[in-house]
Every structure is written in structure tokens, then in C-alpha cells.
Design goal:
Elements lengths: L1 H11 L5 H18 L6 H22 L7 H23 L9 E14 L5 E10 L10 E6 L13 E9 L12 H7 L2 E7 L4 E4 L6 H16 L2 H12 L7 H9 L10 H20 L10 H19 L4 H18 L7 H14 L7 H21 L11 H25 L1 E3 L2 H26 L5 H24 L4 E3 L7 H14 L3 H17 L7 E3 L6 E5 L2 E4 L6 H10 L6 H5 L5 E3 L2 E4 L6 E4 L8 H7 L2 E4 L15 E4 H7 L2 E6 L2 E6 H5 L14 E4 L11 E4 L6
Parallel strand pairs: 3-5, 14-15, 15-16
Antiparallel strand pairs: 1-2, 1-4, 2-3, 4-5, 4-6, 7-8, 9-10, 9-17, 10-11, 12-13, 13-14, 17-18, 19-20
Helix pairs in contact: 2-4, 2-12, 3-4, 6-7, 7-16, 8-16, 9-10, 9-11, 9-15, 10-11, 11-12, 13-14, 14-15, 15-16, 17-18
Length: 717
């Protein structure tokens, strides 16, 4: 019994910190839900609910027994199961129709979001959608459409109802197995179709009267850019209203390469700077007011007003996910001040995380949530440790400089693994850029933005905006300078699936645990980083369209064409840790043969990718000379017999399997498909079984009598 008593005592020491572990348990359950390969039905959810109830009851019984520490283990299990149920409830609650076919025709709807696509085209999200010849029950709640070509007939604003003729289809799945699933993100945002239009859009009805904030946002963005022209004005509009439509691609790329892109997105930094400036300024003003500083608690009044300012900023910025997340965090901190508690604590961070995970569990798998909470948790932990440090202290004049340097260093180190894993790039000089730019953002840009808002009713907002231009030009200059340095950006290969959660849990263990727990957390983090260096990539990748194939050659991944399927091509190269572009990758060595019939033949494996005119005429010859023939843009139904000597991946196959990855293992090719990896989930919309594929073991020549290796892509991983 002595070992049990010792373990119970150790666990009991965590009781005072249970609030800190609550979002970890909830997040683990949410992550478990998203990692499932099939959607639980009523029996499955009933079992999970009963298991959670039993775990809670066991925890209650143990809490009153001889070993109360073990109650914490069952409380943690109940929290994990609760996280699973929260995520499942949310996924079912946001369900809306997804377009089940390719549509071309009139599209009408109300504008709810305005942004820009990857190709820099204006992109609109519409609700209250109308589609021609489509039943009302089948029309998605929201559609997203990019406007290409000459679009000079409409200047979209929020609430405006527009009409356009364009193409729509369901959101596409990952461009490679295990990759980013756009379908899942669209599901939780209520987007049931995406597409494009090349015909000019037209106004059907003016903006609704029920979106005054949207009109105010548009008016402020226009006023800011009128008073401050060029890239500085576009930057100012972006940080005040969230409108990035005027930002050039060159400036955006410079900000990303210098690790300053976070200054552009209205997130925790902006919300914190704004609310902090309002709070500090008002607190000082009230404190020096005769008779007021002693009569009332000026901190509580200042916190309340700062919270209102933050809420207005949230509404003005369009209520984006990152801004909403930032507002929840500052609301918790201001609430702590109003209730007489310390604002910047790990408890405040935990409460903010709990609120977000309960309201929107899907935020757990979003880059913004992961990076913002990684940075905030690390900063609070480090500065909390410094606050309790009893050793020698820096001179008072040096503390602000040290704080800026240390905060940039800590935030950069905390978010670096996440940024590298998500974006496959590392800004080598990001620390330098942030040290030079972030103080200017906090001490000049945001205060001048608040001053401009206060002076605007008097017609003097232009004065603050004129002063605001110079610090913004400094920030943009720093971004361009750092981005132009040799080796400013490094490219990182995508990690294995287990690396990301192990890094997160290891980092949390280092912050939340003590003693040996911290050592184990650090060890887990180091093991995950070491494993990352051994990550591998598929030898062959086939795009969901079947029209693009990428193979590993002596110079990296060689692509089958220089244009088309650009999103898949870019993602493949980024996940390879390759900084190249599609056109250059298409010119690399790797393929033999000729355009229209490219051959890839490393060792015993042989593949031919057919494309262009007459591809079906070349099918039989290709099949006799290769074990695998990819002709993904056409169907070969009726053209091949069951005893054909090759495996053919055509449009019918990729429609069922999604993207295909092939690993050339020593015992033969191993296939992994995007649909098999994604599983049967609410957002995949797949009900038909994935077809079984058969690949000949030989190199493809004269294989009619060769033994065959059955490859079931529905289970191959």
C-alpha cells in the first residue's frame, strides 16, 4: 500500500493546479475526435457519455477514500471524454448542405466576407445563396467565390447582394494524404461550395441596413487610405479594420519572410497593445484627477473602458477568428483586474483557452490558436519566473530594452516549431526584425491609431494618421531589409503526424509540471524534434485531379507540368522543404520519355503519366511497358480488361481515392490515399467504398503472367 499512498500523494500536489490542466484534457479529447477515422454513431456517443459518467463517479468515490490523489486521474479521463463530446456536438451543430456536383450558372447572395485569394483575386463569401435549378434543401448556407477577369462593375461591401455567373463545386480534400483538409475548415465555417467567376459581378441590392458596423469598417478603411497613400496606408487599414485588400503581394511576402506577418493580422498583439494602451492611459489620467484617484478604484474603471474599446475593435475588424480569440484573452485579463486579481497569470491563459475550446472546439487544430497560446503561455511562464527571481536585477533604464528582446526571443522560440511545421519555413532573422519593429508598433503605431479615432469626430484624424505614416514606413522598411538578407528564409520538411502533438504536450509539461515532470517534458520535446529530422516524403504524389504527378528525382521533386494544379504543386514543394516554384520543378530531372507520356522508373517500379491529346490512344502501349499508368483526367471505363497487365489510375479512381501517395519500400510500392487517411467523417461526404487496386510486382514489362500484389487503399497507411 505504501507505493499507492506515495503515488496518491504526488498526484494530490497537482490539485491546486487543476485549472491549468483542464484545457489540456479538453484539448486532448478534441484532438482525439479529429483523429478518428470514422464518425461515431449514436451507440458510439452513448458509450463515450457513459464512460465519462463512470469516470466522474469513480473520481468522486476516490476523492473520499484513502487515496484521493487517484481521483485526479479519473477527472482527467472525464475531461478528455468531455472534449470529444464537445467537438462532436459542434461538428453536428454546424452541419449545412455541401454541394454534391459541379455547378455552372447564376450565383446570387449577400456578401459577408471580403478577402483575397492566393492568386490575389478578390474573394467573396456569400450567404442567403440562390442557385439556378437547385433544390432549396441542397443549396449551401455559404459559398465562397473568387472574382477573376475584369470586375469593374461592382465595389463589394458587406451586406451588399450581388449576382454573378460562375463555377461552384464542393470544397476539395487534401492535396496529399494527411495534408491540410480544406473540407474540414469549410465545414466548420458553414461553406458548402467554392468556385470562381470570370464574368463581371453585378449589384442586385444595396447593403442591408442591419450591418452598420460593416459600413463603418469600410468607411474607416477608405478614410485611412485616403489620408495615407501607398503601402503604409494599406498597412494602416489592415491593422485598424482588417481590410488587407490593398496590400501588395510583394509587401506581404516581405512581412512573411521577416517573420513580421503577425503584425498585419489583427490578433493578440494588436488587441493587447490597444487594450493595454487604453487601460494605461486612462488609469494615469484618472489617477491624477484631483479627488478621483483616492475616491474610486481607477484600475477597475480603466479596465472596464479598455474592455469596451477591445469589443469595438473586435466588431470593427470583422470578428475574424484570430481577433475573437484575442478578445477572449484580453477580456479574461481585464476581468481579472476588475475582480481584484492579477491579470497576466497562467490561470488567465487557461480560462481563455477553456472558453475558446468550449465555444469553438475546432480552433484547436487551427494555426492561430496553437501559435498564439504557445507564445502567451511561454511569455507568462518566463516573465512570471523573472518576477519571482531573487538575484541581481538590471538597472531600471535597461529593463524595457531587455523586456522587448526577451519577449521577442521567447515568443519566437515558442512558436518556431509550430510555424515550421505549419508553414514549412523558418525566418532566420525574425528575432532581429521583431526587436526592431514590435516596439515601434506598440509605442507609436497603435497609440497613434487610437488618437486618430479620438480626433476623427473633430475632423483632425488626419493629423494622427500623418504622424502614423513614419513608424509604419519604418516597419515596412525593416521587413524589406530583413527579407532581402541572404538566407533570410529556410525551408523545412513536413514532420511526421506524431511530432506535432508530442511537441505541444512536451512544452506544456515543461510549463505546468515541476521537478521530474519538466525533465520528462523536455525529453519528449527533444525526441520529437530529433524524429522530425528523420521525416520522409512520398516517392510519388498524384493530385486529386489526377492531372499533376510529382516524383522524387536527383534534384528534388520533379513535377509533370509547369502550370495547372498550382495549389497542389506549391503544397507538395513546401512539405518537401523545397523553396522552388512549380515551373522550375517541372524542368528538373526525374522523368524520362516525352511530353504527354512521362516515364518514372526507379528500380523495379515503373510508372507512365499520360496527358494531352490522344492520351487514350497511347494507353494500351503504356500499359504494356509500365506497371502503373496515371491518366487521371480521363476515364478508361470500357477500355481496359480485368486481366490488363498494369494498374491504371484514372479519373474514376482519383474521384474515389482523392490524392494518392506512393512509397517505394523494399518489399514493394506502398499506397496511401487521402480519403483512406481522412476516413468517413461528416465533412468528407464519402459513403462509397474506396476501390481496391492491384499492382504487378515486376517492373511492368511483360507482366501478364507475373504474380500480383493486392493493395487495399481503404486500409493502406
Amino acid at each position: 500500500m505504501a507505493p499507492l499512498a506515495m503515488m496518491s500523494e504526488r498526484l494530490e500536489r497537482l490539485r491546486g493546479r487543476l485549472l491549468l490542466f483542464a484545457p489540456v484534457g479538453l484539448g486532448a479529447g478534441i484532438g482525439a475526435y479529429f483523429s478518428l477515422r470514422s464518425e461515431p454513431g449514436v451507440p458510439g456517443w452513448t458509450f463515450v457519455a457513459l464512460l465519462a459518467l463512470i469516470a466522474g463517479l469513480v473520481a468522486r468515490v476516490l476523492d473520499r477514500g484513502r487515496f484521493p490523489g487517484f481521483a485526479i486521474v479519473f477527472m482527467g479521463l472525464a475531461t478528455i471524454l468531455l472534449g470529444m463530446m464537445l467537438a462532436g456536438f459542434r461538428a453536428h451543430n454546424v452541419a449545412s448542405p455541401v454541394l454534391g456536383f459541379r455547378y455552372y450558372g447564376p450565383i446570387e447572395g449577400r456578401v459577408v466576407t471580403i478577402d483575397r485569394s492566393q492568386s490575389d483575386a478578390m474573394r467573396l463569401t456569400l450567404d442567403h445563396v440562390r442557385l439556378d435549378r437547385v433544390d432549396r434543401d441542397e443549396i449551401p448556407g455559404r459559398v465562397r467565390i473568387s472574382l477573376h477577369g475584369r470586375q469593374g462593375y461592382v465595389d463589394p461591401v458587406l451586406g451588399m447582394r450581388i449576382a454573378v455567373t460562375g463555377h461552384l463545386s464542393a470544397p476539395e480534400g487534401p492535396v496529399e494524404p494527411g495534408g491540410f483538409d480544406f473540407r474540414r475548415m469549410s465545414w466548420f465555417r458553414g461553406i458548402g461550395a467554392v468556385g470562381y467567376a470570370r464574368i463581371p459581378a453585378l449589384v442586385v441590392a444595396p447593403p442591408d441596413r442591419d450591418v452598420p458596423v460593416g459600413r463603418l469598417r469600410r468607411a474607416i478603411s477608405t478614410a485611412v487610405q485616403d489620408a495615407m497613400s501607398g503601402e503604409a496606408g494599406a498597412f494602416a487599414a489592415a491593422i485598424t479594420t482588417g481590410d488587407r485588400s490593398a496590400m501588395s503581394r510583394e509587401t506581404l511576402e516581405a512581412l512573411r519572410a521577416s517573420n513580421l506577418a503577425h503584425l498585419l493580422a489583427i490578433s493578440g498583439l494588436h488587441m493587447g497593445l490597444l487594450v493595454g494602451f487604453v487601460f494605461s492611459t486612462l488609469r494615469v489620467a484618472l489617477a491624477v484627477t484631483p479627488g478621483l484617484g483616492q475616491a474610486v478604484d481607477v484600475r477597475r474603471i480603466a479596465a472596464f473602458v479598455a474592455l469596451i474599446a477591445g469589443a469595438f475593435y473586435l466588431a470593427l475588424s470583422g470578428g475574424a477568428v484570430s481577433t475573437s480569440r484575442a478578445f477572449v484573452m484580453v477580456a479574461v485579463m481585464m476581468g481579472a483586474i476588475m475582480t481584484g486579481r492579477r491579470a497576466l497569470t497562467l490561470r488567465a491563459v487557461a480560462i481563455a483557452a477553456l472558453i475558446l475550446l468550449i465555444l469553438k472546439p475546432e480552433t484547436l487544430v487551427e494555426a492561430g490558436f496553437q501559435m498564439s497560446f504557445a507564445a502567451t503561455t511561454a511569455l507568462v511562464a518566463v516573465f512570471g519566473a523573472l518576477r519571482d527571481f531573487q538575484g541581481a536585477r538590471l538597472p531600471r533604464w535597461a529593463r524595457p530594452v531587455f523586456a522587448v528582446f526577451l519577449s521577442s526571443l521567447v515568443a519566437g522560440l515558442a512558436t518556431a516549431p509550430f510555424a515550421a511545421a505549419i508553414f514549412n519555413r523558418v525566418a532566420h532573422y525574425g528575432l532581429i526584425a521583431n526587436v526592431l519593429a514590435v516596439p515601434v508598433m506598440g509605442t507609436l503605431v497603435m497609440p497613434l491609431a487610437v488618437l486618430a479615432a479620438l480626433l476623427s469626430p473633430l475632423g483632425l484624424g488626419w493629423v494622427a494618421l500623418a504622424l502614423m505614416r513614419w513608424p509604419i514606413e519604418w516597419i515596412l522598411g525593416v521587413a524589406r531589409w530583413v527579407a532581402a538578407l541572404d538566407g533570410s528564409v529556410g525551408h523545412v520538411i513536413a514532420p511526421q503526424a506524431f511530432v506535432f502533438p508530442v511537441i505541444a504536450l512536451g512544452g506544456l509539461a515543461m510549463v505546468l509540471l515541476r521537478g521530474g515532470g519538466r525533465v520528462l517534458g523536455g525529453l519528449a520535446l527533444l525526441i520529437a524534434l530529433a524524429a522530425w529530422t528523420q521525416a520522409g516524403r512520398p516517392d510519388v504524389l498524384i493530385a486529386p485531379s489526377g492531372g499533376l504527378v510529382g516524383v522524387i528525382g536527383p534534384q528534388g521533386r520533379a513535377l509533370s507540368k509547369p502550370q495547372g494544379d498550382g495549389f497542389a504543386a506549391q503544397n507538395w514543394l513546401e512539405n518537401d522543404g523545397d523553396g522552388g516554384v512549380q515551373e522550375a520543378a517541372a524542368a528538373r530531372a526525374g522523368y524520362a520519355g516525352y511530353k504527354g507520356a512521362l516515364r518514372y522508373e526507379p528500380g523495379a517500379f515503373s510508372m507512365i503519366h499520360l496527358s494531352g491529346r490522344g492520351m487514350l490512344d497511347r494507353l494500351q502501349d503504356a500499359c504494356e511497358n509500365a506497371g502503373l499508368v496515371v491518366i487521371g483526367t480521363k476515364s478508361v471505363e470500357g477500355l481496359m480488361t480485368d486481366d490488363a497487365p498494369c494498374l491504371v489510375i484514372d479519373s474514376d479512381v482519383v474521384r474515389s481515392t482523392g490524392a494518392v501517395a506512393i512509397y517505394l519500400d523494399p518489399d514493394g510500392p506502398r499506397f496511401v490515399t487521402a480519403e483512406a487517411r481522412a476516413g468517413r467523417r461528416l465533412w468528407t461526404g464519402r459513403k462509397a467504398p474506396i476501390p481496391n487496386l492491384v499492382y504487378p510486382i515486376s517492373n511492368g514489362r511483360n507482366v501478364s503472367s507475373a504474380p500480383e500484389r493486392n493493395v487495399d487503399l481503404s486500409t493502406a497507411q
